[in-house]
Amino acid sequence: MLKNPLHRILLVMALLVGLNFVYTYLFPRQPTEPVAEIAYSLFKQKLNEGAIVEVTLQGERLSGVFAGKLALTAEQVAAGRFEGEQLFTRFRTVMPPVEDPNLFPLLEKQQVKLLVEPTEDRALWMSIVINLLPWVLIIGVWWFIITRMRQQGGIGGGFLNKFGKSGAQLYSREQSPVTFADVAGLREAKQELQEIIAYLRDPGKFARLGGRVPRGVLLAGPPGTGKTLMARAVAGEAEVPFFSISASQFIEMFVGVGASRVRDLFTNAKKNAPSIIFVDELDAVGRARGTGLGGGNDEREQTLNQLLSELDGFAPHDEVIVLAATNRPDVLDTALLRPGRFDRQVVIDRPDWRDRVKILEVHTRKMPLAEDVDLERVAKGTPGMVGADLQSLANEAALIAAREDVERVAMSHFERAKDRQLMGMERKLFMSDLERRITAIHEAGHALVARCLPNTDPVHKVTIIPRGQALGVTQQLPEDDRYHFPRSYLLCRMSVMLGGRVAEKEIFDETSTGAQNDLKQVMDLAEKMVCQWGMSNGLGPLSYPRGEEHPFLGRKLAAEKTFSEKTAWIIDQEIKTLVNLAEECATAVLAENRKTLEALAEQLLEEESLDFQQLESFLADKTLNFPQKSCAEMRHSGKSIKETD
Ligand code: ATP
């Protein structure tokens, strides 16, 4: 029968509503004419006067009919709210609790028709039910809450017990049939994890050989690269229960709860052994202790201690493997990484283009694709994207196709999905002609500097349609995945970033606020070049923490200074030198190619967007000049550009 208490409550309520309905419709009330509610004394008086012709007795209630219409004042009628008098034909009263011996003789004397009706049982119990309804509801809701709390171990299991439960999701093979086939690429990671799978499938084999299998495996890599997916695939391949929890779920405002949740999780996993525990975002509890950051969180440290001791506390026969994922292995407490705990690290890195093709294949498996779809081209045009991005790209392409009401997802849908992902969503924004022209000059500046300088990525698209936060976008995409970024490349990149602002200056002799984001990026890059990559001439190959992101907060923070005021001054000078160098080059490029810049801006105003091919064919008959002297540090033997000075 109904096991869910909520369903039971709903059933009771439905029954009551049904009964009320039946009562109202099957036994409709008499059409009402005003009935005077009068005092027993008045009734007796009217009876004596012979003004009553009929009386009905029903228990202690007495009702009847006057002889004709009787005028009564408001005072004579209980709850009478009328002015002066009103005519009534019927009345009602209540008999006194003490029996009136004169009543019946008087009725007989006045020859009143006397009717006696049984007390209205039906009405009585209906009114009882209706009176009880709110109580039933209150008790029902209360009962529901209590039952739920009990199920979750609240009442009866102790109040804190509820918090002490780990809350980990348990997936079995049937619920989560993820296998390695669903994880595209990541060949090395899969190979490393094969050993774990072999162990979980046949734990005895390793014991027989006296080997020790790593108990904890840390999956480290940027967000969205498939760490969670990989962990689930390991469970799916090994066909064992999979307990999944995010480390932040351990932490509650009560001290001690996290530790008890960790205990509960490990106890459950051991009960279901062989099994896998997966702790996502391990850095939420696993950050190095004693830093005083994160609010001096005692609770976090206690939780971490408990986790450490649980990892230590595995008996040789506990066939439980702990997988954990983090984006920041660098901030983890070293105690977590020592042998016997998470002693194996598997790096889940950003996919290269070949892996991106495979990921796209996985996520387009169920999509009807048009013939022109070239996943390899999509993959090559999405450098830096991770699995989660590609999944969302494929999904976006399908949505665009659905919006167009077509049968198959075509290449153009993928292109649009890609642009949307890389450059943000198109915005409808009213811009004056002047503003459009400023934007066109700005974007043409970026594009032209990118096209003229030798060591840059090809311009994938340049547009003056507002997208995301930007009024226009110039998108460059590398031809291949890059792992090394030479100094000349970075300088060129800075020049390209400054190209927009420099173009505005060149044409309008004034700059605008449109370059704010460009300047920020230039500054960040220059700071890294000087402080992290030793690329400045004045400072040399030294690395300073300035400009580094804070390891715990993922953003910049006033880090402890490890250098002198003088060094800080030199750093500032070097950053300035690099930015000036980049600006000088961009200025020279645009001054040398001013006519082309203006023509390109005109073309942009006309077309709004130019892709790589369109840009190339536009520039095909133009001569691009490269100011060799001003851009000496950017030089690279690459494209066939005429060098002028
Ligand atoms: P985070 O660090 O933010 O938790 P994560 O690395 O755990 O991210 P997942 O949650 O595993 O990333 O991946 C997000 C989604 O991206 C997955 O649901 C999956 O669909 C897709 N994905 C990521 N990598 C791959 C891959 N190699 N093959 C197929 N799909 C992938």
Question: Mind explaining what this structure looks like?
Answer:
The protein is an alpha/beta fold. It folds into five domains: 5-26 and 125-157, no CATH class; 35-117, Signal recognition particle alu RNA binding heterodimer, srp9/1 (2-Layer Sandwich); 169-347, 3-Layer(aba) Sandwich (Rossmann fold), CATH 3.40.50.300; 353-423, Helicase, Ruva Protein, domain 3 (Orthogonal Bundle), CATH 1.10.8.60; 433-644, Methane Monooxygenase Hydroxylase, Chain G, domain 1 (Up-down Bundle), CATH 1.20.58. The protein has 22 helices and 16 strands. It has helices at 5-26, 40-48, 103-109, 121-151, 159-164, 187-201, 203-208, 227-238, 257-271, 283-286, 298-312, 334-337, 353-363, 375-380, 387-403, 411-423, 433-452, 487-508, 516-531, 565-592, 594-607, 612-619, and strands at residues 35-37, 52-58, 61-73, 85-94, 113-117, 169-171, 216-220, 242-246, 275-280, 320-326, 344-347, 459-463, 473-476, 609-611, 625-626, 642-643. Strands 6-8-9-10-7-11 form a six-stranded mixed beta sheet, sandwiched between helices. A five-stranded mixed beta sheet has the order 1-4-3-2-5, with helices on one face. It has a three-stranded antiparallel beta sheet with strand order 13-12-14. Helix 9 (257-271) links the parallel strand 8 and strand 9 (275-280). Helix 6 (187-201) packs parallel to helix 8 and helix 9 runs parallel beside helix 11. It is elongated and about 135 Å long. Residues 153-162, 550-555 and 637-645 have low confidence and may be disordered. Residues 183-186, 223-229, 280, 325, 327, 359, 362, 387-388, 391 line the site of adenosine-5'-triphosphate.
